[in-house]
Amino acid sequence: MTPSYCGFPYPNDYWTVADATTATGLRLALPEVTMPATDGGARSNPDAFNEMDGFSPGIAAMTHFPGATVMGLATPDSIQDSLETTSPTVILNAATGERLAHWVDLDEYVVQAKLRVDAGEEKPAFTIDRDIQKLRQEQALMLRPAIRPDDATRYIVAIRNVRDGDGELVAPSPGFQALRDDVPSDDEVIESRRAHFEAIFAALEDAGVSRSDLQIAWDFTTTSRQNNTSAMVHIRDDAFDKFPDGVPYTIVLKNEEIIADIACRLEITFDMPLYMSKGETGGLLNLGANGLPEQNGTFPYSAAMIVPVSAQDEPAALVEHGHGQLGEKEQVLGFQEIAAQANFAAFGLDHKGFSSDDIPTVIAALAGGDLSKFRAIPERMHQGFLNFLMAMRTLSRAADGGASTTLNQTLTNDCGRAEIDGSKRYYFGGSQGGILGASIMALNTDIERALLAVPGQSYNLLLNRSVNFDEYSGLLYGLYGWNALDMQMNLALIQGLWDRAEPTGYSKYIRTNRLPGTPAHDVLIQVSKADHQVTNLGAHIMARTIGGVVNLEPLIRPVWGIESVSGEHTGSAMIEIDFGNPDPPITNIPHWGDTMDDPHGRATELAGLVTTLPVFYETGVAKNPCNGPCDQDDLTPNP
Fold first, then answer.
1. Binning pLDDT at 50, 70 and 90, where does residue 131 land?
2. Is 609 inside a domain boundary?
3. CB under 8 Å to 295, separation ≥6 — which residues?
4. Is 281 within a domain?
5. What is the pTM of this model?
6. Which residue, among 479, 404, 58, has the nearest Cα to 227 in the 3D structure?
7. Are residues 373 and 326 located together in one domain of the fold?
């Protein structure tokens, strides 16, 4: 129905087959021809994507109308317009008739990124103009859900009244028009789809959307919770059944790069149960005969711990620290000031799968011409999550295990008789650590509260709007000849693999609808307005998806779909900080034009955080830490 691009509209139940063994009753059946081809003719192997029982709930509903504009369509600043009966774009829950809030992007990233590349290569103006004119005809029209769609749910997408640059209505494709107007077609595929589309048109008519106005409509089914979480839940439960009190560990004193208020720095190496084909990067899950991961021996993984001097007078809380993009455990050293002031014994681990030692695997997956190999990233992230879960179990039990434990002996002998209270267990993650912290919290049985700083979901949304993607986009986009439609298809395919680890697959279960054997959790989400690296839109989607997250007044701005409250609030909450940066672009591009300091990593400058965070951790009570809306008046310079 989108003759200009094979595979569109996408996601689309046309690319599924019945499968009674799955939770949805479906399985993807994407043929190789729908896989974008590199300039050299290579296509991704569809087998990895066809394991899924539906489409990722973290992607946009995409189609292509050459020459289309977003005139009159909902934007990130007017999400509420998408729910109006007159909205030109509709995403409809097929079972309930409820409309799904969204905004519409016309893919601008590829245009602006190519302009930047061409300018850097000093190409002639006529060549640049030719490139851009071509890309302007290849822009995907994307309906981006403002809240994660439900699991295992069929949705109907309808588009009408989309106009071109002259203000004229864009014509539907001949195939769709034949279905819509019930006129004969000599296309066998079109004829085979008539009954299916009559049901779609009837559902839309019931929702007040006339078939005669439609430019295109289609349906798709989202993946099930089992599809995304069953492997990781099995790993967690199997490991804790075998090691209920934690795993063996060794400690080495490593008092390097610590500030005066830190008593000691420890390197703790755990003998972790391994569920991968190998412990190093590039491995895949070690699957048993039942299709679930099984243990493959053990492997040493380490944590970096800092213990504050204040723990010599009062037992410190245990705080697990998640690092930034493709970073490493030593980034916990940037947490020293807060740890010292708040009496946190903080330890960081690598987010295996997306840490510094995984960079070669990431590059190989993106540049190799077969994006199915990207599965090595989220599959190793399963091991990374287990490491976080098992490390907290091990250290908290050791801390409360008496003077004979190795941890307590080290605290006594090497940390000035410091103590740790193993009953106080929390999580603090920033950037990637905030993103993946949402997944960790949905899985966690030992930690009930977390701070997620500058997070977001899904990566499918985050990448185009992040300056961090610049380092990789030229490599990936160039491989596919800068075809804009190919790239959005590629990013959508990757997201289906990523959902099994990133928060699109997990954040919905943090507070309610919890995973088996998992308690309810609360999170404090910190957002830096106009963030250059993680778009605020992703943080807002995460907050709405978790559910019950309130925006703490006084506000720097209202956020659609998130209730605001004043005073103290018991439960999950969001705090936004305005560092004075200009508003972000309305389209799917990064803050390339913002010359101010990136506010992404500046949350630790918030003076009141060190007093309000421990209260939230211990009691679940969240409070705006600022004297009025959080802005530069509430900051203290970093040392």
1. confident
2. no
3. 238, 239, 242, 273, 274, 275, 286
4. yes
5. 0.97
6. 58
7. yes
